[in-house]
Amino acid sequence: MRIGLFLAYWPWFSPEQQVALSVLADELGLDSVWISEAWGQDAVSVLGVLAARTERVGLGSAVMQIPARKPTATAMAAATLDVLSEGRFRLGLGLSGPQVSEGWYGEPFVRNLGRVREYVDVVRRALAREPVALPLPVGEPGMGLGKPLRLLVEPVQERIPVYLGAVGPRAVVQTGEIADGWLPAFLDPENPDVLMGPLREGLAKAGRDASAVDVAAAVPVAVADDLDSARDACRPWLAFYLGAMGAREKNFYVDLADRYGHGDVARDVQARMLDGDRAGAAAALPPELIDATALVCTRRPSTSGSPPMSARASRRSWRSRPGTARRRSARWPPCGVAA
Q1: 11, 60, 63, 85 — which has fewest CB within 10 A?
Q2: Does residue 311 have a pLDDT over 60?
Q3: Could you give phi then psi for residue 34, rounded to 5 degrees?
Q4: What would you measure as the largest C-alpha separation in the chain, in angstroms?
């Protein structure tokens, strides 16, 4: 199991923390550092800074939002980051949700499976330095002077790996069909088939082996003097995704919690968050849901020198699941409590 850091976006992590933790990950020999974006800090700028401040650790976007950029612009950014990092970049892409796509970017949140497949195809062709010409918007004739262009930059890697952020069943199936990597959120190692089943279905449809897709699961982690305090450190993060990362009518993380059997709780958390009760939303999360989607540990000493029982049992769950974190890259974002 390889371990990395998911350093999200401001304000969860400050720019200084993102740099300091990335440098530490580089020094400690961790596998990777991942940066995300929502409707504030963008991923590309931060990754450019990290490329200059680190030497060995892999750098990835988790994710760069598809509605934010034309696929050719994404290919330009990916190639640039790959050169600046000397071949350490991993391109994670995702659709975000309808509120961000339509409200922030003015892009319809429709035809999502087809959009992702077409977008990835254009990005890959551009990165392979094939001539690419994008169609003009429907009803916009333009000047008629556009022509296919070839990317001027040559990436360091022969093939920059493309990861997809997906938790919906059909989106995960497609990830298994076309992606080099997968960025699942809230993967429960005790109930992996909810997310891993669709991935295996996609792999089988495309005639691919499980080793074709690198699974980089985002797992909130907290260490405290007792388990309740560790859970409390993870509450704001989980409540934010259930309550704020989607509309009341459509939230992929609430849908995933429902498939795990926590639908009523997830909808209650979402309702509280959307009504402005952030503290109440966080408090409404039961220990069972937190423990299923986060790694919470205590600091209590062990006379045998082994990890605390709570941490040891949880780690065993991750290691024992074929095709999950045992052979894949795992991203472990702190919940606000330092280990």
Answers
A1: 11
A2: no
A3: -125, 135
A4: 76
Phi and psi (nearest 5°) for 200? -65, -35
Determine the pLDDT at residue 319.
55
pLDDT digit string, tens, across residues 142-190: 999 999 999 999 999 999 999 999 999 999 999 999 999 999 999 998 8
92, β-bridge pairs: 163
Residues 6+ apart with CB under 8 A from 334: 220, 221, 222
DSSP assignments along 234-260, one per residue: HHHHHHHHHHTSS-SS--HHHHHHHHT
> What is the C-alpha separation between 196 and 326, in angstroms, rounded?
13
Q: Give the HSE-up count for residue 286: Cα atoms under 13 Å, Cβ half-sphere.
A: 12
Summarize pLDDT for 23-49 with one digit per residue, the tens: 999 999 999 999 999 999 999 999 999
Place of tokens 């059997």: 261
Tokens of 216: 């980089």
Provide the mean pLDDT of the chain.
89
Of the pLDDT bands very low, low, confident and very high (cuts 50, 70, 90), residue 1 is: confident
For 258, the token pair is 């429902």
User: What Cα–Cα distance (Å) separates residue 47 from each residue in 5, 7, 51, 272?
Assistant: 13, 11, 6, 34
Burial of 51 (0-12, 13-18, 19+ CB in 10 A): buried
Residues 6+ apart with CB under 8 A from 280: 272
Q: Kindly report the backbone phi and psi dihedral angles of residue 27, in degrees, each rounded to the nearest multiple of 5, phi listed first.
A: -70, -35
Q: In the prediction, which pLDDT does 269 show? A: 96
Q: Kindly give, in sequence order, each residue whose CB lies less than 8 Å from that of residue 197, ignoring residues fewer than 6 positions away.
A: none
The pLDDT of residue 338 is above 50: no
**What is the Cα–Cα distance from 280 to 287, expressed in whole angstroms?**
15
**Structural domains of the chain, with CATH:** 2-222+309-331 (3.20.20.30)
